[in-house]
């Protein structure tokens, strides 16, 4: 008797960890830069440069890239300057079960960063970085889907071998790869704006990204927000410009198909914002070059019948089974939540004249699955840059936190065990309106894509041996018996106990189906 097998690829987490590290350092202002009078704006981003693996440990090498916009000292009110740099770090992290050839995925987040002045030539950076490395392995599982030769082994109308099947739902890994999408976009200053001289601040934020599996490729579309503060080319006046640029492209993905489940995370690679001359030779074009480092996993939902159990009618069957776990997709949620908050300035802050720039970052604090509900809580970190009516040459920042809790129903969650989940949260450019000189109203929308996985544990038939029934067993089998059905009994269990096929029991007892109840009487004839 041969087992007909089918192989499927499933994902399992081999090892994971979470580490928070403080990163603090004093930085000196370059000799080429003027003295610092007041820090206006700052930003930071964590980048992973290299991951080395060893036995049960990894080494993560990266850097915290920072940028500072400040008001200068001793050169007149409203003079601005900018500086940027990076702080390197190297961390050793323990990861159980990892081996040297394993590929590690490491998510890095900047939990907090604060920059303050020590003196006019020295600044202090204090930050907290979280590193979340994990190793996922693709396992090829063998399923028994049929018994080859079972029909030949049942010459007496099913009175030799009895087996049954059941349906197994699973999520199969079709594509698993790391790839890069390079982005090259540019924007031209609107007519009427002065030419760009020295750039004092430049930033690029990815507002939203969408992924769509297609035939042998992955389509990527998104939008980036670009903001610069610059000194005019022919003068000392300060100007700023902000715009949104759509981008898109395709990444080659062999075996990709429409309607696959896409679980994709990304990091922003090295970015470069430069000023270029337009066709008239004037510095009016802003060029953006960056890349998305994609961690791509494409799954396909599958269903297949597997051999669930087998017993002999006129033979003894020794079946060997192995318990295996199979990943399944419990829920796929696309969530959008609108938030609003009034932001009050401090009493000492200058009054608002005009909004120059704003950006928002989503921080997920907790994800809870309970009673067929998903609860995601966190904060929106909002930053606003404005000019004041009290000082027409200066820029002033406002920073606030908008808490949120999003609750959505997830049918079937209470009965399932959540093995893993992924949450991709984004927010576009916030809408900021001035209510009065000391108050702003912030409106924005949080978009989330949540994939919830559960584990289905099944006993999979791995081996089958058929041999004659032992003579002692045959002697103990009655020729016929009246069996009183107990709670939880099934025709399959009764037939297996007495070496009788299910069809034979149904025929003798004039049953049209397999439904039986406790207390029923069944005639069992060998």
Flag low-confidence runs: 153-159
Report helical residue fraction: under 10%
Radius of gyration: 33 Å
Based on Cα principal axes, name the global outline: elongated
Q: Helices and strands, in N-to-C order?
A: EEEEEEEEEEEEEEEEEEEEEHEHHE
Structural class: mainly beta
- Estimated share of beta-strand residues: over 45%
Overall residue-averaged pLDDT value: 89
Number of distinct helices: 3
Number of domains: 4
Mind summarizing the main beta sheet? 4 strands, antiparallel
Amino- and carboxy-terminal Cα gap: 24 Å
Task: Work out the number of β strands.
Answer: 23
Describe this structure in words.
- The chain starts with a strand and ends with a strand.
- Strands 1, 2, 6 and 7 form a four-stranded antiparallel beta sheet that branches.
- The protein has three helices and 23 strands.
- The chain folds into four domains: 125 residues, no CATH class; 166 residues, no CATH class; 153 residues, no CATH class; 57 residues, LysM domain (Membrane-bound Lytic Murein Transglycosylase D, Chain A).
- The chain is mainly beta and 526 residues long.
